[in-house]
Design goal:
The structure is a single chain. This protein starts with a helix and ends with a strand. The protein has a single domain (about 20-140), classed as Sandwich (Immunoglobulin-like), CATH 2.60.40. It has one helix spanning about 5-10, and strands at about 25-30, 40, 60-65, 75, 80, 85-95, 105-110, 115-125, 130-140. By secondary structure, the chain is mainly beta. About 25% of the residues are buried. The longest helix is centred in the N-terminal third of the chain and has 9 residues, at about 5-10.
Length: about 140
């Protein structure tokens, strides 16, 4: 996770960066629910949860690159949500220790929706709307 003070100091020193890196990966990494508050880790290429989550579902997604959350699309159980009304958190992550943000961890609120269905996030790059990546999982 990124220390906000580190980012504030970075900009205070007037250092500049290149363009935001395009999205290279989107991956559902965890599903949390009232029944499983510690969550279920999701492996790459896993197509369905192994636990029955039922109510209070939240999906945690890892994104490598910079996405435009206002253009991202989240789908669950046949319903589509644009402009992120169900985005609970958008937290910066580091993957290589260079002090720059490499991507984001997002938590999506699926509570109050059907208790089972296909979850999909389509993330659009900040550096170009035409660049998208997505991942999905069927949540039991």
């Amino acid at each position: 996770m990124v220390d906000m003070e580190e980012n504030v100091q970075f900009f205070a020193n007037n250092q500049t960066r290149g363009p935001a890196p395009a999205i290279s990966s989107v991956e559902v990494v965890r599903v949390i629910s009232d029944q499983h508050p510690n969550g279920e880790s999701i492996d790459p290429f896993q197509f369905t949860t192994t636990l029955d989550h039922d109510t209070g579902i939240k999906a945690v997604v890892g994104i490598i690159g910079y996405n435009n959350t206002m253009l991202d699309v989240m789908r669950f159980a046949g319903q589509e949500f644009g402009k992120n009304p169900r985005l609970l958190s958008h937290t910066a992550i580091h993957t290589d220790g260079d002090g720059f943000v490499d991507g984001w961890q997002e938590t999506w609120d699926l509570s109050g929706l059907p208790t089972e269905g296909s979850f999909q996030l389509i993330a659009r790059s900040l550096s170009g709307i035409s660049r998208t990546e997505s991942d999905s999982i069927y949540i039991l």
